[in-house]
Structure formats: structure tokens, C-alpha cells
Amino acid sequence: MERRDFLKYTAAAAAGVTFFNSINLVYDEAIAAAGPDLAVAHGASPAAITNAAIDALGGIRKFISRGDIVVIKPNIGWDRVPEQAGNTNPEVVATIVRLCLEAGAKKVKVFDRGVNDPRRCYVQSGILDAVRPLGAEMDYMDERKFREMKLKGIALKSWPLYTEVFEADKVINVPIAKHHGLAKLTMSMKNWMGIMGGSRNRIHQKINESLVDISMTVKPTLTVLDAVRILTGNGPQGGDLKDVKRLDTVIAGIDQVAIDSYGATLFGMKGQDLGYVKLASQAGFGRMDLSRLQIRKISV
Questions:
Q1: How far apart are CA 186 and CA 232, in angstroms?
Q2: What number of helices (H) and strands (E) belong to the chain?
Q3: Is residue 28 over pLDDT 80?
Q4: Do 116 and 262 share a domain, yes or no?
Q5: Looking at the 3D structure of the chain, how many domains does it have?
């Protein structure tokens, strides 16, 4: 190659590198502006780490607008106290209620269809006493408000679902991470069983497919996974404190598949180890591969 040609070649190559570096910079800035896919906050205070995780995603006003009617769906299915990790941590739920009201929400509703007597579940979980003083509505679910809805799913073509979830302006899913004898783990996607009417044990034969069908029907604005305490065995009800592990962690995001995939790692598992996560990923419902996600970790 002649020296003149060589100089032209290297100059063009340098220009190309500069161009692509500029493109990459713009791309990186766009990702940073959009915020992380998941925010993982760790600290001793459940309220502080819940605040921190949501702030890392852009703050509650990114998700809740003034005048919104908001449904917050925790797990309140069991007659268990917070230390037993059978239900969502009450401080996590109360923090989200407070943030929504501060953002100007017109009304915040908190409910779940319990397996045990809801009158005991609401009290024993600590959630009733935590959210009512803040101004949230926490009524027992009314059987008359379940309506048969078409799902167009793999296993479920229709199912009676709770209408207040679909009438709300915004829905926030607030599950707890815990062991489950049939599904292996119960987190965000399985938490939607709490809006199902009828005989829910009918879905157990095709539990993974059914959970995907339900999860693809509900469109939560935000999901906050409570891992302040996780239940490592004898779930989903628990009861023995030996099965409880304190992690002081909260994971927040929009993608339920990603959240459940990350949640699996808290138990020494991977997302692909959970049938419903794998199916949902294959269906394009969310992203299971954590290596392709932007995950921001915060210590409070």
C-alpha cells in the first residue's frame, strides 16, 4: 500500500471509530435516561429500601399521576405474622401506599383473596394496621365483583377475575418471595392468583401455563418484590421460623419475568428453573436473561 493510500485508509478508519463511538455514547445515554430494568435495594429499613428501589427507577411520579385510582396487590393469603414471611411485609406495602398518595392518587385500594380467613389474614399480616391510617381502602374482596373474562391463554381460555383490578387506573403488584411446593417459588407472576375467583386449585394440573395466562392478562404499572424476609421451605403458608431467611432486600421493576428471574437467584436458582418464567420468556412476555438487563443495586 502506498503511503498516501495508507494515510487515507487510517483517516477513514479513525473517522469510523469516532462515528461508532458517538453512536454508542448516544445509546448509553439513552439507556441511562430510561433508567435501569431492575432496582435492587438492600438495607435494614423496609421503608427506606422500598423508597430507594422506586427512586432508582425514576420515582413514584413516573408511574402514578394525580387523580389516579390505584390498586396495590400484596400477598395477604395467610394467617401469619410478618416474622413468618407468609405475606408481604407491611412496611413495604405501607411505603408504596404513602408514595402513591403523595403523588396525588385519588384513591388507593389494597386487597387480596386469602386462602385462610381474610379477617384474620388482614390483621395478622400487619398490613391492615399499616395502611388504613395512611388513608388507603382495605376491604375484603366482594364475591359479586368477580367476572368471567376471556384470557386467550395456553391453558386458560376464561376465568372469573376481580373487576376492581381492571377498573383501576394503575395497578402495583407487591408480592413476597417465598417457597412453593408446586411452583417451586411464588413471586410476582404467581401473586395474581389472589385476583382469581372460583376454585383456583383447578389450575394446579397446568400451573406454569396457567400462571403465564393470568400474568399476561393483568397489566401492572409497577412490581415491587418483597425480600425483606424470604420463606425458604414449607411454602406458601410457612409457619416455622427456621424456614425464614432475612435478606433485607426489595426488587422493583416493570418486567415481571425479569423480577421473578432475579428473585430465583435469592434461593440459589435461575429463572429457567421455574417453568412459568421460562414459558413467559419464550412467549416474549418478558426477559429472563439477567445478563442482558441493566440492574442497579443500592445500599441504604
A1: 11
A2: 9, 11
A3: no
A4: yes
A5: 2
Domain check: are 128 and 191 in the same one? yes
Paired with 250 in beta bridges are: 41, 226
230 and 196 Cβ atoms separated by less than 8 Å: no
Strand partners, 252: 39, 224
**Mean pLDDT of all residues in the chain?**
92
Alpha helices, DSSP H, located in the chain:
3-34, 46-56, 90-102, 118-124, 127-131, 163-167, 207-215, 256-265, 275-282
| Residue 35 pLDDT class (50, 70, 90 cuts) | confident
Give me the pLDDT at residue 250, please. Answer: 98
Distance from C-alpha of 38 to C-alpha of 256, rounded to nearest angstrom: 10
| d(C-alpha 248, C-alpha 256), whole Å | 20
Residue 7: the pLDDT is 53
Same domain flag for 117 and 266: yes
Model confidence at 22: pLDDT above 70? no
Q: Give the C-alpha separation, 223 to 145, whole Å.
A: 24
Q: Which residue has the cell 409497577?
A: 222
> Lowest-confidence range among 3-12, 208-217, 237-246?
3-12
49 Cβ contact list (under 8 Å, min separation 6): 41, 42, 43, 228, 248, 249, 250, 298, 300
Cell of 138: 382495605
Q: What is the pTM of this model?
A: 0.89
Counting beta carbons within 10 angstroms of the beta carbon of residue 150, is it exposed (0 to 12), middle (13 to 18) or buried (19 or more)? Answer: exposed
CA distance 182 to 227: 20
